[in-house]
Amino acid sequence: MVNDYCIGFYSSDTRKITILHDWIWDAVGPEYVLKKAKDSKNYYEQSMEVREICIQLFNHTIGVHTLQVQVSCEMRGDTAIRGLFQYLYDGQVFVTYDAETGTWIAAVTEAIPLKQFMDTKIMWLAYVKSYHETECIENLKKFIQHGKHVLEQKVPPEVRVLIRHSTDGADILRCHVTGFYPRDIDVTWVRDGWTTMVETWSSGILPNHDKTYQIRKTLEIDPKDGHTYACVVNHSSLQKPIEKTASVSTGSWILGLSAAGITILFLLGLGLAGFLIWKKKQNLNADEKKDRAPLSASNSR
């Protein structure tokens, strides 16, 4: 992954790496990809050893259990930030590589036997040290250089505020923000232009099918409280925040609903009028045919 873009994956069945973007090929070249396929094979074999030890430590002879390897590094501007290299078992951090000592640190007491075992793997420690301190950052710099057109794009959000009247008499305000990139965004409900409100519910930031993101936040209020509420959105693609106001004076939600209802009724009315006109023409044509039928029969005699 680079930011939130998956750049490729390794298959333990084919022992090959699949690259998902042309700019990754441009950044590292085919020879490096072949080398990383061999490294990934070592990753896999090492992970299987770690998994077996974890299973033994917890006596997990049945059930489904997961082992994850997290490797990352970070660039902030031109500054390289040292990342991490760690193993997680069933979602819990188990052992982490310590760059200062060049050894592994047990995150929990149960991981001490695993830490001792991994400290004996000198070749693997040397690889982890090299990747952690050098290779990861060098690759990231190449990816940023060749993928700027993707990684630095900014897509502004679309913001909609909807009002729904609940059965218990409260108004539910929903702010739906969608279509934005990059992922980081700030969405806040504000009362009377300055009081920040704590939302009743938030969907969290979710992915869209087109690589953009969306988020929904709702706020439950008394429709008779006389205050004005707005959804305020801050995003790196915007020169200034987007502010969408929800009018919640008595009956406002009905007005909003009525506007939609009028549109629907208007369209239904047009459709019904067209149908009636058509039906009337069909009836007139049928009557004309009936009137002409006897006359035609009389002339034939």
Please describe what this structure looks like.
- With 301 residues, the protein is of the alpha+beta class.
- The protein folds into two domains: 8-151, MHC class I-like antigen recognition-like (Murine Class I Major Histocompatibility Complex, H2-DB, Chain A, domain 1, 2-Layer Sandwich); 158-250, Immunoglobulins (Immunoglobulin-like, Sandwich).
- The chain has helices at residues 22-58, 112-119, 122-146, 148-151, 252-300, and strands at residues 8-11, 16-19, 67-76, 79-89, 92-98, 103-106, 158-165, 171-180, 186-191, 195-197, 201-202, 206-207, 213-221, 229-234, 242-246.
- Strands 7, 8, 11, 12 and 13 form a five-stranded antiparallel β-sheet that branches. Strands 3-4-5-6 form a four-stranded antiparallel β-sheet. A four-stranded antiparallel β-sheet has the order 10-9-14-15, with no helix packed on it.
- This is Major histocompatibility complex class I-related gene protein-like isoform X2.
- Keywords: Disulfide bond, Glycoprotein, Membrane, Signal, Transmembrane, Transmembrane helix.
- The chain crosses the membrane at residues 253-278.
- Its main location: membrane.
- One of its GO terms (biological process) is immune response.
